[in-house]
Design the sequence.
């Protein structure tokens, strides 16, 4: 055990020392080559980020700002809509991410198997990813209109009576948007999974088949564990996307009815719209912390598991 | 709403490009002015820019005004620029003022939104201008802060109340209600006749606020100092008499008086239902009159208007929305400032009312003395005018107090669709207003 860890440490030390970035002094290009990119990064990213941390502690009218300590954060957490929006954000992030993993995996297995028109079906699955979220949002708002929309038109024809208010019923609105998000983002998850499954050496499948393994056995013991890198990529990407999701929610429900489908990002935007610039900046700092606090440990854990495989 | 967003992106890019072009223009423009100033000394040709919102009404009206002004003052050319409407427009205006990129003259709301622009810092004081005498006092109050007047009217005042279908009223033998109880009784009869008594359109969330906002005349009749106390953190919506406004919003929902698609319908769908007679009442502002007349020209005759009734028939009266203003930012200086002041002075004359009436039928009384509403105006406008003639008018809360919470329309959607009871909604709104008060650094909050 101890020998093993020692060896590993020694290895990593060697690896680090030989890393090209470690002794840049001897590097072929002088340091000031970094300057143009550095200046752009500094003025467009670092300065605004640092400034936003300052403005989060002020009441800011754009014309004037004055320091008010932690008041914005206190206010933000007292917002009646905020606790709801935090829950909605988590539900949204976890559900979209989970559904994309499950459905993406299933679709990918189907689309790597021997099916007719496989290339065509793959493109069809990927197609929604290419659309702009705003366009998708507006389109679905029209489709899901409770009385004039196509979806409820079909509903009435099949089941009779009025269909549900997909985007106007406070109990349904958030889940409808989650459904739209999954429809739109599933293609990317499927693509990543297809790549992951294709990367599994064909010998494993052949050996398993020779040993008499059925589809289910192959799926559970080969595809599932060996496509884990794909799973972790899909989880991290879609969770980050879900936690800071805004455009789809804004174009379909604007967080409504009332606050029934508000997420942190839409609450922040509303503060900005209302002219509460300090408060909205504070909200962004909160969002930044929440996303980092969830995604950083998760991605560390996933990487570790990947390495263990 | 969704369209706003894409629209805004395009517009922001457009604005950026526009401002670049503008600075170029203004550089060239002032150069011309000084050169002709040194040679001649007579009135130099001058171009000023004028920012208005991009609604069809505003654009048509502005083009007519600019043309008429150019005829009266050929030496000055006014060039129209447009911006987004709604809260996105608010932010564009604030950003332009904060960065010194504002056009030479701009149109914007009066009342609470105007106060949020920090007029003392950003706008040119017009108190001493001779034409101030031509303007009505109710308008001047709505563009005054700290004892100084900053604007001239950009259109007509409007009424907030209830548009109703007169055909349905005639059919069922109903009378225009003077009290809330009469209104609810009428609604019941309309419901019994199989027609939706009240149209609500929460697909456009702003429309949900009308029952609360248009009830303000009734509040002020019970407590004349209410607006003042409200600004001073002493009167609350969660207490009577103001709580009644939220209760009324809830009452129409509880009684099942709403059109069945109230949760998703938009403003134009609501007007269509009113015109078609599938709905009888629509709580609205009169500035939509032009929109429903466009849907059906006959509607001008059979859609009427009455003020939102209160408890006492003897104190029945109208809540009015004061017209927006036209302002000059402090960044306009020198010859351009003189030209801008000439333009504003002309806007405060009856000639400007006539030019604007030709492009856009007035939806309420003008705020310039000597202007009047034509006798062949749509019925709803004449009904509205009657309240002004009788003097039973008070302005809406947002013109008496700088406080208007940004979340009111979400709260009224919740109360108006039974998700939250009236008392809880009113209390939530009081919390919302507190943020606004702190942002404005009002004393007592």
Sequence:
């Amino acid at each position: 055990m101890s020998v093993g860890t020692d060896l590993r440490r020694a290895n990593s030390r060697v690896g680090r020392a030989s890393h090209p970035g470690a002794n840049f002094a001897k590097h072929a290009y002088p340091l000031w080559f970094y300057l143009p990119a550095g200046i752009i990064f500094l003025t467009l990213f670092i300065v605004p980020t640092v400034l936003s941390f300052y403005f989060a502690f002020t009441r800011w009218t754009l014309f004037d700002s004055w320091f008010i300590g932690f008041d914005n954060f206190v206010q933000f957490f007292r917002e009646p809509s905020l606790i709801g929006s935090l829950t909605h954000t988590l539900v949204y992030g976890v559900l979209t991410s989970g559904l994309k993993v499950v459905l993406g995996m299933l679709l990918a297995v189907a689309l790597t198997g021997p099916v007719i028109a496989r290339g065509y079906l793959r493109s069809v699955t990927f197609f929604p990813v290419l659309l702009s979220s705003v366009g998708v949002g507006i389109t679905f708002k029209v489709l899901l209109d409770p009385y004039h929309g196509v979806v409820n038109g079909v509903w009435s024809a099949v089941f009779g009576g009025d269909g549900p208010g997909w985007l106007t019923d406070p109990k349904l609105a958030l889940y409808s948007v989650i459904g739209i998000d999954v429809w739109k983002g599933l293609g990317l998850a499927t693509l990543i999974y297809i790549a992951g499954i294709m990367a599994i050496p064909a010998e494993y499948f052949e050996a398993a088949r020779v040993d008499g393994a059925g589809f289910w056995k192959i799926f559970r013991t080969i595809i599932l564990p060996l496509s884990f890198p794909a799973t972790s990529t899909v989880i991290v990407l879609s969770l980050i996307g879900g936690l800071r999701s805004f455009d789809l929610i804004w174009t379909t429900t604007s967080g409504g009815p009332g606050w029934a489908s508000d997420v942190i990002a839409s609450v922040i935007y509303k503060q900005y719209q209302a002219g509460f610039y300090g408060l909205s900046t504070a909200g962004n700092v909160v969002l930044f912390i929440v996303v980092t606090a969830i995604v950083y440990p998760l991605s560390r854990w996933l990487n570790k598991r990947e390495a263990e495989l | 709403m969704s369209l706003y967003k894409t629209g805004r992106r395009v517009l922001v890019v457009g604005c950026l490009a526009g401002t670049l072009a503008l600075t170029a223009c203004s550089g060239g423009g002032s150069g011309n002015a000084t050169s002709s100033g040194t040679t001649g000394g007579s009135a130099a040709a001058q171009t000023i820019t004028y920012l208005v919102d991009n609604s069809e009404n505003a654009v048509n009206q502005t083009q007519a005004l600019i043309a008429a002004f150019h005829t009266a003052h050929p030496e000055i050319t006014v060039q129209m620029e447009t911006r987004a409407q709604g809260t996105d427009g608010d932010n564009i205006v604030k950003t332009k003022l904060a960065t010194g990129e504002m056009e030479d003259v701009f149109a914007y709301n009066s009342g609470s939104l105007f106060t949020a622009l920090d007029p003392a810092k950003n706008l040119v004081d017009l108190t001493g201008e001779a034409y101030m005498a031509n303007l009505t006092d109710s308008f001047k109050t709505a563009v005054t802060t700290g004892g100084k007047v900053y604007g001239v009217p950009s259109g007509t005042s409007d009424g907030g109340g209830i548009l109703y279908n007169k055909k349905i009223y005639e059919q069922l033998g109903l009378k225009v209600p003077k009290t809330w109880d009469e209104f609810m009784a009428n609604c019941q009869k309309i419901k019994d006749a199989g027609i939706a008594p009240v149209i609500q359109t929460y697909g456009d969330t702003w429309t949900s606020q009308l029952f609360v906002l248009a009830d303000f005349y009734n509040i002020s009749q019970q407590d004349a100092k209410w607006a003042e106390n409200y600004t001073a953190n002493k009167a609350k919506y969660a207490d009577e008499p103001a709580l009644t406004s939220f209760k009324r919003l809830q009452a129409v929902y509880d009684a099942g008086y709403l059109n069945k698609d109230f949760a998703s319908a938009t403003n134009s769908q609501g007007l269509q239902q009113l015109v078609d007679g599938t709905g009888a009442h629509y709580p609205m502002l009169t500035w939509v009159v032009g929109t429903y007349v466009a849907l059906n020209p006959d509607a001008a005759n059979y859609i009427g208007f009455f003020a939102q009734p209160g408890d006492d028939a003897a104190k029945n009266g109208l809540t009015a929305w004061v017209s927006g203003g036209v302002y000059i930012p402090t960044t306009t200086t020198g010859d351009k400032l003189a030209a801008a002041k000439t333009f504003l002075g002309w806007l405060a004359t009856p000639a400007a009312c006539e030019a604007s009436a030709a492009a856009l039928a007035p939806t309420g009384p003008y705020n310039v003395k000597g202007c009047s509403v034509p006798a062949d105006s749509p019925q709803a406008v004449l009904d509205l005018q009657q309240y002004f003639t009788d003097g039973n008018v008070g302005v809406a809360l947002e013109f008496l107090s700088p406080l208007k919470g940004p979340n009111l329309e979400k709260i009224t959607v919740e109360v108006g669709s039974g998700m939250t009871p009236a008392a809880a909604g009113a209390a939530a709104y009081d919390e919302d207003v507190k943020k606004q008060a702190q942002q404005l650094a009002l004393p007592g909050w």
Residues 1-42 of chain B have pLDDT under 50 and may be disordered. Chain B touches chain A through 40 residues (CB under 8 Å). The longest strand of chain B covers residues 46-53. Chain B has 20 helices and 13 strands.
